[in-house]
Amino acid sequence: MESGQDATTEIGRRLRDLRRERGLKQSDLAGEGMSVSYLSLLESGKRPVTPAILHRLAAELGCTVEFLRTGQEGDRELERQQELLLRITLGELALRGGEYGAALAACDAVLAEDPPAETATRRRAKIARADALERLNRPAEALAVLHELYRDAALGPGAAEWLRLAVALCRCHLLAGEPASAVELGQGALARLDAVIATPTEDHLGLGVALIEAQHRSGGLAAAKELADRLLPHAERTASPAARAAAFRHASRRAQQRGETALALTLAERALALPAEDEVARYLGLLKAGYGSLLLDGPEPEPGLAKKYLALAGQELARCGRQLDRAGCELSLARADLMLGEYADGAAHAERALDLAGEGHTGVGVWAWLQLGEARRLQGRTREATEALHTVERLLGEEQALLAAGRERAEVWRALGDQWLGHGCPEAAMNAYRQGLAAAGLSGAAPLRAVLRPAGL
Question: Among 82, 340, 404, 425, which residue has the least CB neighbours within 10 Å?
């Protein structure tokens, strides 16, 4: 049997080890009734821990009181923690299957558990919860969770989870109609990543794709093209496993030389556990698709060159991309075809974009209907063209439309107004322009610049 002093020392050691394992500082656990200095004495075994403090620390650290006292979990508690972990894993699978509501419910249930789930399980639940909220078009709630996780001092550039959070934050700011915030966050994250890993890796590609879209959406075409030009020459080399591993190994050695042991370990582990080749190929496809879109929106559009990049992107995304990735690529191909006068091909690409986007993704779907309407007008199929424009009006009027009030919604209304003018319908065009001004929070100002530049207008 342990003596009183031995038990106090062992409890202190378990407190210290578990806190470090959770990536927490002493100041993270300190608070009312427990100072940092007192916690330090507990961890060093110089003060016995009271029952009240023991229960509090167990809750903070996501373990049981029994574990802190004895170093062992009871069988029932181990089973409960395994059950909670299983529920989160099933929730993550529900996310992959498109069951976003079920995934959110699973995450909320685990996070509401008392006593709480283990810290690692709770973190997984929070990340999955933010993902589900994003998919359910609730970006404000997702951003609150993501910013909390992103501020975690235990994470940083080189960690796979850090990258996932940074990219998700960019996406959610865009979904919330805040492209400037997405650009600010993306640029800051990329600067931090460059300071750690000089040679572009899949992390640069993943973050770069998100930042390019944010810059594009905020009107910073020059900055977006500059970043794409920087990343494209490295993209093919980055897809090589040997090159990727070498970049992480080199960054790990540099961190070790600077005395940053934790960062060096993170980077070394990334070299050993690189993401699947398909994910790197997806980043490459998205980068090419983004570059092609930029070529369409520049001051001197290059639809021919854009189509070449988009065709290559389409091949890669068809193999390893997600449905919305492919829908976005088809949408840009439709735009390129209309600029080149290839109206039938443009209509076919717009229809494929609609099929891939599905009914639940009206953000992409609205633009696809606009492209299809313009293609049908240019083909002389007026009735089908106006039906497409009426569909756009209906989608924009739905409360659940995945276009937040702000710049993008205003641009859609402006593009719709331009198309109604092309049909000789000035009243419908004026209504669309007024709706665009309202979406942008403007009154009496000139209509916003159109992003969609239909051929022949």
Answer: 82
